[in-house]
Amino acid sequence: MGLEWPGPPGGASLAAPDKDSDNTRNRERNVGKRWGTYIAKGVALALLYGIAYLALRYVSFNQWFLPAGLRAACLLFLPYRYWPFVILGDASAVFYQRLPKLDQYAATWVYVGPLLLICSVAIAPYLARLKLRHPDDMHFWMPLVALLMGLWGAAFSAIFNYALGGPRQPDGIRNFVEYVTGNFLGILMFVLPILIWRMRSWQTYKRSKVVRDSIIAAALIAPLFLFVKLQPESKSITHQIALLLMILPAAYLTLSHGWHGAAVGVLMVNLSIAQTMEYAGVPRYYDDTVFLSHIGLTLSAVIFLLFGRRITLNFETARKLGLAEQEAVKISRASIFANEPAVRDQLIMLASMQVLMDDERDLLAKDLRANGKAHAAMELHRRGVEHRQLFQLQALVVYPIGIERDGLFGLLDTEMFRESRASGAVVDMHFGRTDPRTLSEALQVSAYRCLCHAIDHLSDWEPSHYRLRLRVWHGGRQRGLYIAAHITTAHARHVSPHGESAWLLLEARVKAHGGLLRRGPDGIRLLLAESLDEPSAEQESSFAA
User: Fold this and answer.
1) Confidence at 233, pLDDT banded by 50, 70, 90
2) 450 near 507, Cβ under 8 Å?
3) Which of 65, 222, 344, 446 has the fewest CB atoms inside 10 Å of its own CB, making it the most exposed?
4) How far apart are CA 521 and CA 532, in angstroms?
């Protein structure tokens, strides 16, 4: 019998500590991998940033400084965890540029200045991200943020140049404005495309229209660009005017498409004006002719982007209100259409009851005649006819079911309609040649309702003569009915609650159909419309058959 090692108290397994230690080692290994990946990505970012900085610096000018845009884009949109590598890449690139000047300027400016400069410049984007947490805020305030960052970077560059023994410019104010302008325009070249990409899903962003108008704007800029580019020796006032005129297409895009148009226009003009400068490979190259246009572009860019953002918000508000109104119209139209069939069914039930009453009356009259009471039978028959006529008049008010048999024009051109609505006035009717049964029954019923509301509203004038004109129209993908109701009267109008209520009902019904309504001094005109996809009354009757 072999010996067995006693287990732990309570039957616990001895393998548990080994499992815990394995989990701990796995977690440490995963943490190590994540740190390794993070360091590798960061070093690659710093290396690529430095190479891009030096390449952009070579094709830049003080008044169009692209490295400022690279720096701003990385600090504004990269996660904070990658900031140390951005700072490392920026400081290394600036140090590489300054190292050959060690014999001209102080060593502190060469060795320490690059790190101090990027750390100081990073304060502005940090504050912007701290204050503008919502993307919409960043989009709205971006031109001012870019201007602030350009001013901030130029200020600290000048401060460290003076404090650390770097280069000093004789014309301090002019050079400072030049650096601010260059930083601002360089920032826009990088930040605006990123913002356009981030705002690509906006409802008001219509790509096809923006692309179309951008092509038009480019076609307007191209002749001005060629005029300046093909005459490089002549630096006259006409060149400055041509450069300033390039800004007008950006204004056109701003008014047409709001913020998106402003962003595309500013980018287009910014690049076009910069391309008129000669790339001599000189770091501090300065073009006095283009400088004025750069100042104008800077001021215009701030105005266009702020104004364009406001236009975009107005577009968005109008779109939402338009959608809300469309939804309200759809709901109103659906409720009206849903109500009419219910009224029709009720009328059919009442008509069935009326038929039963007429049958009972006829049987009673026959019994009276059989019993020798012919006079009583005749009186009962006369009352039955009166009740039937009264029922037909009331039925015409409840629902115009005669439209299903005779169409709208056939229903209106009857003495019963004149008696029910004209109140003794003369009614002249003029119909178009097109049969209204080419329209849907729902539209014909709505037209009948609208005509009744219009007559009820005009009855406040106590007219002696009504002139009614109805005409079916077809156009494009729609069809409908034109209705005009005019009166002849010598009485002044007295406003009645019935007339005002009729006008409100008429407005609501016309708006539910997306129609038009006009009220003149002696009449009302309205237009009702529906889609050609709606089945006509003739098609509905053929389907029913």
Assistant:
1) low
2) no
3) 222
4) 34
How far from each other are the two terminal CA atoms of the chain, in whole angstroms?
Answer: 100
Nearest by Cα to 112 from 162, 67, 159, 164: 164
Is pTM beyond 0.85 here? no
465-475 and 478-488 as β-strands: parallel, antiparallel, unpaired? antiparallel
What is the pLDDT at residue 257?
75
54-72 pLDDT per residue, tens: 998 888 877 788 899 999 9
Q: Answer positive or negative: Cα dihedral of 47, 49, 53, 55.
A: positive
In tens, the pLDDT along 257-292 reads 777 777 888 888 888 777 777 654 444 445 555 666
Rounded to an integer, what is the distance from CA 404 to the centroid of its chain? 43
- Phi then psi for residue 93, to 5 deg, are -65, -45
Helix, strand, coil distribution of the chain in percent, nearest 5: 70, 10, 20
Query: Quick one: DSSP state of residue 434?
Result: S
